[in-house]
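Person: Please work through this fold.
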Amino acid sequence: MYDLLSGMRIVEGASFVAGPMGGLYLAQMGAEVIRFDSIGGGLDFGRWPLTKKGSSLYWEGLNKGKKSIALNLSSPEGRELAVALATAPGERGGMFLTNYPVDGFLSYERLVTRRPDLICLRVMGFPDGRPGTDYTVNAAVGVPWMTGEADAPGPVNNMLAGWDLLAGAYASFLLLAAERNRRETGRGREIRVPLSDIAVTGLSNLGELGQVLLSGKDRPRSGNAVFGAFGRDFVTRDGRVMVVAITARQWRALLKTLSLEAPVAALERGLGVDFTADEGARFTHRARLFPIFEPAFAARGTAELQPAFDASGVAWAPYQTLHEAATRDRTLFADNPVLAPITHPSGETYLAAGSAATLPGEARGTPVRAPRIGEHTDDVLANLLGLSGEAIGRLHDAGTVSGPARD
């Protein structure tokens, strides 16, 4: 946790990954992020993975450092409170992050009548309002047909929610950009971020869209090989490693470490290519190169390769499961300052991430746990909406709002 955004307030009405991730990034930089939740938890409150007692590790991870007010969103009174929260006054407030539908009680057109300078960032599935997830967007743009081995009989999904993660980061960036513009112009705005457009622009920016349009055909699958460069998984005497040589320096260091300068030079002469100068040639001729490298890796243990690779600047990593990495790789996990053990609303204590950014010379705060549903209901109603204790009590009595459930 850092305090770069101290004094800024974002109201979040969002579920699943991209919207809550955007709020998480802002909270980790010091913004006050107030999310309104349905009483008892919203659509994603019980999503897997779960603790043994059934609490969602997913929800705890995405909502660290935020405040929670619980509303009966099926009632007109509860919806009115959600609108009031999204449009609450304050110079550094008036920013609303949501994935609610374009139309409905949280439409921009309705909200802006209450606060004309409102900034509303709306995460969507597809631009036309259709719902979308990482898996369905990937299917639509063709990524599963580029993933997997060349002889895979059908599409191969990727379990990492990459477009969701990028959309969350982009959402936080856009909110800050819009807030900066509002300070200069006084103007608010609605910003829509469809997950499908994150995918389309990502594929375009990486040249993959241009490749298929100009070639007239899809990119072939290449298994674990890195497209356009030298990189692949190799079996060592005692395990498996991923090795990538993109730069000329990395390529030379890899050859030297494995004592392969002579056979690779002979292959270059036979093919009339220069693998050191031409990164693409290493990929084009990978079927000739890999058989040279495979026995060299198989003859060596990982412990032997590690110091040589690290000293020479080769990009590599051993294959390990997440459990192996989390329990054995102290640099990545146990000794990593971006992580700290905290006790979560589930009652479990485990490592949790703060900001991925490091600000040299500035103290890094300990990650703050996610809230219990409704934990800050009374505080938000009183301090943000200015309601009296009597008014808040009536809302509780009517079932319009709720505090945290008792243990």
The radius of gyration is 26 Å. The chain has two domains: 9-203+336-402, 240-318. The mean pLDDT is 97. The first strand starts at residue 9 and ends at 13.
